[in-house]
Design a protein that fits this description.
The complex is a heterodimer. Chain A is α/β, with parallel strands linked by helices. In chain A, 38% of the residues lie in helices and 15% in strands. In chain A, 59% of the residues are buried. Chain B has helices at 33-46, 117-124, 146-156, 163-167, 174-186, 188-191, 194-207, 218-222, 230-245; strands at 3-9, 18-24, 69-70, 73-74, 95-99, 108-110, 113-114. In chain B, a hairpin with a 2-residue loop joins strand 6 and strand 7 (113-114). Chains A and B meet through helix 3, helix 5, helix 6, helix 12 and helix 13 of A and helix 1, helix 2 and helix 3 of B.
């Protein structure tokens, strides 16, 4: 299979403009003859469904939550980047492009990233027009801040809940189209399969989560806006329901999965408090602006915050400041995370052993408690509420957690997967963040894809196939797919084994975290592969799902998702095994500099790994899309 | 910790529900309330008993999916979401009663899960600004005074969980609708259609079967996001003004 990225020819800055002109259009009267399915209603899905509805297409949108507003985009705290240069501090589309491609450690496409930077400015205008209450200055204009180590202030924000405000904006646009009858919304409905006929995506199979009814829906095109797969690690900052099932079903129907092992680990999360832990909570990394990260020089198992206060300076190791004198505590996410893991692996972790201190004592001494409260009050309160410890009185404890997945379904410049008519938007695709995503860029990408890319690119496909190129749900392929989904559901419920779904999920998560998390080695990955295979085999003979299929059954929902995670996990391990370089968010132990820092191998690995499904329990086939860099020079990152 | 739970169990919307009592002896003060239920569910599954259904998703207090009426309070004793409530807020040996949201407009689906789609329909009735994607002015074209933007933001922090309805003896949705109306009524972008919006949203709210407001302030006291009762006053003002000066508006009914 030849992977064609379809990046338009010509200078970087003209590619998208030229492409928009060259694409075919669907005339307004014909748009109403087309049907489009949108799965997922986060930033990418809601913005796409609303925009396509406005244009006149007939849209069916699906979400598994009880309302589209609950999609996990809602939880994003920090902000959204846009190259507006409102601050007159030297920002530009070119600079946002450069920062994003460099931040991604040169594993993303230049063309895609440039377009993302280009449309970023439109996103802010759109959101303001919808009534999104962004932070403002006293003069009434929009406020910005610098975020995630960027040298310019280009991040727009709405206190600590930018994600919710942007999603409510997209949701309101979606509501308007629902009211207009252009979008039919299916809440509490989960996609369980993709239907492909004559090589084109023709529809999906869904399960109504309240009645258990399995149904088919046909359309001219299917958009997967189903988010990332961080929950393969069981513990992550994702919502409990976030899952890979839609993307995984698409993979098994022929869509290639790209860079599955590229996951982002966020350094400042609240540590695990016990076996009961169900998810991890992120705290804004802005905390590292004033907090100092340390562990004791000698192992002191079980060290608590209240006792740490009395530990003499000479007994502390401020390891980030020691190893990276010029960046100190502000090293990028991956470096901060990896070093925290390293000191804990050495036995110097505090609390449960899997935590490091983030200490504000010096900042409080310097600026006073009031200044620190004004800056971080809500985060300190959140920490207090969750841990029961007062961070004004002793250092916080933090530990890295899985936060975002850069990998996802392979898409071309038009956001189309390798299955014609099947698109992937937002975190569900792999396209823009390379091996590491910059802060405040996830919201930007979700909305760019939904508001400003897909409305153009889908027209080109639809105009090419024509409105009469559609397969109805009476086609045998739909009947077969319904049958297969029903069988799988029946199978899950009939096993009646001895272990709960969560037990399998937790075991998978631990394996992924230990061997395919922040640091990986060939030996560990091979071990993980075997564990996952055994776990998967055991799952299908020993899982216990109670209740029926024709009712609300949350265990059944979970079981289906975990079954898919058990397959995805192995593909992630395969991908990590193949990529013997360290890059972006992931560190390969065999590939490091003499100082122990990550070492990229551009000559061997400047490509996208795209995996093709070949059959259950068979090795997936690897296809490579070579990355061409014509506008940036590849450099090794250094934060010493 | 050891606790006794009295949990509302109901097979589906048509069946009659009842309280069932569970002794839970594996509770740690560091668990969130939902994690406590996770552990109980695991124990139930091990005993081949059907686990308790409850809504939840982000577990960080923002998606608004978790609910639960705990010991007579929506989201329990603290002014937070249930997912952000921890067992250290309860004492060893305590009996905790858990019910679903109780409101005619929020029918029970199963156990502790209710149908809140009425909130979606109220927003579909008019909770938006009529702008299409593209062709909008520059984000800085219309300055908005910081105080106004902040007040709109305060209203916009509503997470749509429905605690206000659950807290109200009349099962009124005025705080929710008031917050949505306020956000748009305050911002210049929303002013253009302010009259029709408030009329349509209020009409839809009534059609869904929510009760009236009798100013008990229970909603404000229980709202996990601290939405202020002044939003209801603003909505009433907007509504009155609209009714006096606007034209007839038709809306569809709820189910």
């Amino acid at each position: 299979m030849k992977l064609e990225s379809k990046i338009p020819e010509g200078p970087l800055a003209e590619k998208w403009t030229k492409h928009k002109f060259n694409m075919k259009l669907v005339n307004p009267a014909n748009k109403r003859k087309y049907e489009v399915i949108v799965v997922g209603t986060g930033l990418a899905g809601a913005s796409a469904a609303a925009s396509l509805g406005e244009m006149g297409y007939n849209v069916k949108a699906f979400c598994f939550q009880d309302s589209p507003r609950r999609a996990h985009s809602i939880a994003a705290q920090g902000g959204i980047n846009a190259a507006k240069n409102y601050q007159n501090d030297g920002d530009s589309i070119q600079r946002l492009f450069y920062d994003t491609i460099k931040g991604g450690d040169y594993r993303a496409r230049e063309g895609n990233v440039y377009r993302l930077a280009e449309v970023s400015v439109n996103i802010i205008d759109q959101c303001v027009a919808q009534g999104v209450p962004f932070a403002r200055e006293y003069g009434g204009l929009l406020a910005n801040r610098s975020f995630g180590g960027a040298q310019v202030s280009r991040t727009f924000y709405a206190r600590g809940q930018t994600g919710q405000q942007l999603l409510l904006g997209a949701y309101s646009a979606l509501n308007r189209q629902i009211a207009n009858g252009k979008v039919k919304m299916y809440n509490r409905t989960e996609m369980l399969d993709l239907v492909v006929v004559d090589g084109k995506a023709r529809g999906i199979i869904t399960r109504d989560l309240i009645t258990g009814k399995i149904e088919s829906h046909s359309a001219h095109a299917v958009l997967l806006c189903t988010g990332g797969y961080g929950n393969v690690f069981y513990l992550s900052t994702n919502a409990k329901g976030s899952n890979v099932t839609a993307a995984w079903r698409a993979y098994k129907k022929g869509a290639l999965f790209a860079n599955p092992c590229f996951t982002q680990i966020h350094p400042t999360c609240i540590p695990v408090s016990g076996d009961h832990q169900s998810k991890l909570t992120l705290m804004s990394e802005s905390l590292r602006n004033d907090g100092r990260v340390w562990v004791p020089k000698k192992a002191m198992p079980g060290l608590k915050s209240k006792d740490a206060v009395n530990l003499h300076e000479a007994e502390r190791d401020y390891f980030l400041e020691r190893k990276y004198p010029s960046f100190g505590n502000l090293v990028p996410r991956d470096v901060a995370s990896r070093n925290a893991k390293q000191v804990c692996d050495e036995g110097r972790g505090v609390g449960s052993g899997l935590a490091v201190f983030l200490d504000f004592t010096d900042a409080i001494k310097r600026d006073g408690e009031d200044v620190i409260r004004a800056k971080y009050g809500n985060l300190f309160d959140m920490y207090h509420q969750i841990t029961g410890e007062n961070p004004y009185k002793g250092p916080m404890m933090i530990y890295p957690a899985v936060h975002y997945t850069m990998g996802g379904l392979w898409v071309d410049y038009n956001l189309m997967t390798t299955v014609p008519g099947l698109y992937a938007l937002g975190e569900a695709n792999f396209s823009d963040h390379g091996a590491n995503r910059l802060g405040a860029s996830a919201l930007m990408q979700g909305l760019a894809d939904g508001y400003f890319v897909i409305p153009y690119t889908i027209g080109d496909y639809l105009a090419t196939i024509g409105w009469n190129d559609k397969v109805g749900t009476d086609h045998p392929a739909f009947k077969e797919a319904i049958e297969a989904v029903q069988q799988r559901v029946n199978k899950l419920i009939s096993i009646k084994g001895n272990k709960t779904v969560d037990e399998f999920h937790r075991q998978l998560g631990l394996t992924m975290w230990d061997y395919c998390g922040m640091a990986r080695s060939e030996e560990g990955l091979k071990k993980a592969k075997k564990i996952i295979q055994d776990l998967r085999a055991e799952f299908w003979t020993n899982v216990n799902v109670l209740g029926g299929t024709s009712e609300l059954n949350q265990e059944l929902e979970k079981a289906g998702r975990v079954a898919d995670f058990l397959e995805l996990g192995e593909l992630m391990v395969d991908d990590a095994l193949n990529r013997t370089e360290s890059c972006g968010g992931h560190f390969r132990e065999e590939s490091q500099t003499p100082e122990g820092e990550a070492m990229r191998k551009d000559d061997d690995y400047a490509y996208v790994s795209a995996w093709q499904y070949t059959g259950d329990n068979q090795a997936a086939a690897l296809h490579k899309e070579d990355l061409k860099f014509e506008n940036v020079k590849l450099t090794q990152r250094s934060y010493k | 910790m050891k606790i006794t739970l009295k949990v509302w169990r109901q097979k589906d919307s048509k069946s009659k529900g009842e309280f069932k009592t569970y002794e839970h002896s594996h509770v740690s003060p560091d668990m969130s309330f939902l994690e406590m239920l996770d552990v109980l569910n695991t124990e139930l599954i091990k005993k081949k008993e059907e686990p308790i259904s409850f809504d939840h998703d982000c577990r960080e207090g923002i998606c608004g999916m978790c609910s639960l009426y705990i010991n007579g309070h929506p989201h329990g004793p603290l002014q937070t979401t249930t997912c952000q409530l921890h067992m250290r807020s309860f004492s060893d040996g305590e009996t905790i009663t858990i019910e679903p949201w109780r409101a005619k407009a929020f029918p029970v689906i199963k156990d502790l899960v209710v149908d809140r789609s009425a909130f979606d329909r109220i927003q579909q009735a008019g909770g938006y600004v009529n702008v299409n994607t593209g062709g909008v002015p520059d984000g800085n074209a219309i300055p908005i005074p910081k105080m106004i933007a902040d007040e709109a933001f305060d209203a916009a922090t509503c997470i749509g969980c429905g605690a206000c309805v659950a807290a109200c003896k009349n099962a009124s949705a005025m705080l929710f609708v008031g917050a949505k109306v306020s956000q748009f009524a305050l911002l210049p972008q929303g002013k253009v259609e302010a009259k029709q919006r408030v009329e349509k949203m209020v009409a839809q709210m009534d059609a869904e079967g929510f009760g009236a407001c009798t100013n008990t302030y229970a909603c404000e006291a229980e709202c996990p996001k601290g939405i202020k009762i002044t939003n209801i006053a603003r909505m009433n003002r907007e509504y009155l003004g609209a009714m006096l000066t606007s034209y007839k508006v038709e809306v569809g009914g709820g189910e």
